[in-house]
Write a sequence for this structure.
C-alpha cells in the first residue's frame, strides 16, 4: 500500500505555507521595498542549500470531514543552509503573518533555531522584521488571560554569544523582542529608510504626547551612530553581503580556529609611501584607513561600526591570509582620544576577538582619554576602565604599532602588557604620561613665573624636553621593544599573524560574551 496520498497532503500544506500571509499582504510588503522572508533566505544562502525545519508549522482550520480549509504559517521560517560553502542556521521573520508577531505560541520555532545553532555549533543569522517573537495586546483575546512577562528561551540567545557567531539583520520595523534579537548579536546591520528599531514604536510612544515618524524615533541614522547596531546599508542585498563577509573571518564556533585563506597578495608588496604617511607637524591629520589598506592583504579590510565611536577604527583584516582583529586610531576625530563611545566600541571588539580566537593588531595614535565637561558627563573614565579590564583580561596575542602619539592611561592600553605583546614603533612615535604641551605650564609654573620672558622660557623648556622625549632614548633604556622602518610594517605583521597561528587554543572563552 502506497503512502502517496499523505505525501500529496504534505506538498499541499507546504504550498500553503509558501503563500505566506496571502497575496494581498505580500503585495503590501513588497510595495514597501522589502523582500519576503523566503526571498531573503534565498538571497542570503548559497543557491539550493536551504533545508527548512518546521516547514508546515502554523495554524490550520478544518471542515467537518477533517480536510484543511485554511492555513496560516508560523511567523518564522527557519532551517540551515550554507554561506560560501560553510553551514549556518538562518531564522527569518515573516512580517506578512500578523506583522511578525508570535501570537499562538509559535515562538517554539525561534527557540528551536537557537538550539540548533548551539548544539550543531553553527553560526546563526537572524533576519528580523517585526516584533520577532514578541506578542501584542490582541493576544489577550486569543489566550483569554494576560501573561506575566518572562524571557522564555532567551537564555539560548545569550548562551550562543559565547559559542557561535551571531548576526542580526534588522530588515523592517523591529520593536521590543525583535529589536532585542538584533542587538543581542556579534554583528548587526540596519537597512536605511526601510528598517527601524524601537523599544516601543510610534503608536505607543506618541500616546505619551509625542509626534514621531518611524525613522525619527528609531531609524538607522540613530542606531548606527549610537552603537546599537554596527552598520547601516542602502539595500537588503548589501546587508546579506555584510553578513557573509563578517562570518568569513570567523570559525564555525569557539571550538574551532579562524581559517587562513589564499588572498594572492605578496608579503613583500611595495609600500614605500609609508615612510611619508605621518606628517612631521603633529597638528596635521592623515588618513589612517589608507595605512590600514596598504599594510593588510589587498581588499581584506572589513570595517565594523564606522559611524560610531569614531576616534577608533575597528574591523577584520588578513595578513598573508591569516585573519586578525584590527584596531586603529583615527586622528580626524578628537585626535584619536578615547571618548566614552570609543571605549565602549573597543571593549566590545576586544571581547569579540577573544571569543573567536583572533589575534589583535593595533595601530596606535592615542593622546589619552578625552577631557572636558562633556567627557566627564558621559562617564568616559568608567567606560575606559571597562575597556582596559577587557584588554588586560584577553589572552589572544597582541601586536601594537605606535605610529604617532601614545600618552596617558589610554595610550598605556595599546596592548595587553600583562602578557607578552609584540610592540613596534615608527620613528614618528612619541609617548609619555601626557603630551609635553599639555603639562608643561603646570609642571614649570614657578620657573615660568620667575622668567623675564615667560613665552621664550616656555619655548626653551619645550625644546629641551622634546629632545629627551625621542623614541630612541626610550629604546636605549629598553623601555620599548623595537623601532621599525614603516615600510617593513606589512612584512612584520604577516610574520606576526603566522606566528600567532600556533599559539591560540580553541575552546569557550573564559567569560560570557555580552553584547
Amino acid at each position: 500500500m502506497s503512502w502517496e496520498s499523505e505525501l500529496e497532503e504534505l506538498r499541499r500544506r507546504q504550498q500553503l505555507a509558501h503563500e505566506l500571509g496571502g497575496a494581498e499582504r505580500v503585495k503590501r510588503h513588497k510595495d514597501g521595498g522589502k523582500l519576503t522572508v523566503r526571498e531573503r533566505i534565498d538571497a542570503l544562502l548559497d543557491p539550493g542549500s536551504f533545508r527548512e525545519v518546521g516547514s508546515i508549522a502554523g495554524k490550520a482550520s478544518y471542515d467537518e470531514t477533517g480536510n484543511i480549509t485554511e492555513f496560516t504559517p508560523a511567523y518564522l521560517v527557519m532551517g540551515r543552509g550554507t554561506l560560501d560553502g560553510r553551514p549556518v542556521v538562518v531564522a527569518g521573520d515573516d512580517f506578512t503573518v500578523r506583522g511578525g508577531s508570535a501570537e499562538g505560541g509559535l515562538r517554539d520555532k525561534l527557540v528551536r533555531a537557537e538550539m540548533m545553532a548551539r548544539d550543531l555549533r553553527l553560526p546563526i543569522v537572524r533576519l528580523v522584521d517585526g516584533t520577532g517573537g514578541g506578542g501584542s495586546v490582541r493576544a489577550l483575546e486569543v489566550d483569554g488571560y494576560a501573561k506575566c512577562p518572562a524571557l522564555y528561551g532567551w537564555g539560548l540567545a545569550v548562551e550562543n554569544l559565547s559559542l557561535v557567531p551571531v548576526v542580526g539583520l534588522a530588515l523592517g520595523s523591529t520593536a521590543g523582542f525583535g529589536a532585542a534579537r538584533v542587538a543581542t548579536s556579534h554583528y548587526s546591520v540596519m537597512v536605511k529608510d526601510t528598517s527601524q528599531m524601537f523599544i516601543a514604536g510610534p503608536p505607543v510612544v506618541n500616546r505619551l504626547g509625542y509626534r514621531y515618524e518611524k525613522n525619527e524615533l528609531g531609524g538607522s541614522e540613530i542606531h548606527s551612530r549610537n552603537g546599537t547596531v554596527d552598520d547601516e546599508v542602502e539595500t537588503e542585498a548589501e546587508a546579506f553581503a555584510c553578513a557573509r563577509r563578517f562570518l568569513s573571518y570567523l570559525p564555525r564556533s569557539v571550538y574551532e580556529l579562524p581559517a587562513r585563506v589564499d588572498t594572492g597578495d605578496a608579503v613583500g608588496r611595495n609600500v614605500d609611501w609609508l615612510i611619508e604617511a605621518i606628517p612631521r607637524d603633529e597638528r596635521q591629520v592623515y588618513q589612517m584607513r589608507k595605512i590600514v589598506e596598504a599594510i593588510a592583504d589587498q581588499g581584506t579590510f572589513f570595517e565594523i561600526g564606522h559611524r560610531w565611536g569614531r576616534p577608533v577604527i575597528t574591523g577584520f583584516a588578513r595578513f598573508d591570509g591569516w585573519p586578525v582583529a584590527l584596531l586603529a586610531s583615527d586622528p580626524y576625530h578628537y585626535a584619536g582620544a578615547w571618548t566614552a563611545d570609543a571605549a565602549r566600541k573597543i571593549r566590545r571588539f576586544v571581547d569579540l576577538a577573544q571569543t573567536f580566537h583572533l589575534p589583535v593588531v593595533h595601530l596606535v595614535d592615542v593622546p589619552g582619554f578625552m577631557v572636558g565637561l562633556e567627557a566627564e558627563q558621559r562617564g568616559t573614565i568608567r567606560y575606559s576602565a571597562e575597556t582596559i579590564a577587557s584588554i588586560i583580561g584577553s589572552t589572544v596575542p597582541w601586536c601594537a604599532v605606535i605610529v604617532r602619539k601614545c600618552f596617558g592611561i589610554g595610550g598605556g592600553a595599546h596592548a595587553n602588557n600583562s602578557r607578552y605583546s609584540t610592540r613596534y614603533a615608527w620613528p614618528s612615535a612619541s609617548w609619555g604620561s601626557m603630551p609635553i604641551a599639555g603639562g608643561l605650564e603646570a609642571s614649570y609654573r614657578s620657573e615660568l613665573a620667575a622668567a623675564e620672558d615667560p613665552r621664550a622660557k616656555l619655548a626653551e623648556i619645550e625644546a629641551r624636553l622634546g629632545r629627551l622625549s625621542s623614541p630612541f632614548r626610550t629604546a636605549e633604556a629598553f623601555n620599548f621593544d623595537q623601532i621599525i622602518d614603516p615600510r617593513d610594517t606589512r612584512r612584520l605583521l604577516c610574520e606576526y599573524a603566522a606566528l600567532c597561528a600556533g599559539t591560540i587554543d580553541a575552546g569557550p572563552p573564559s567569560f560570557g560574551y555580552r553584547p
Observations:
- The chain has a mean pLDDT of 89.
- The CA atoms of residues 297 and 319 lie 5 Å apart.
- The domain at 272-433+470-500 is CATH 3.90.226.10 (2-enoyl-CoA Hydratase; Chain A, domain 1).
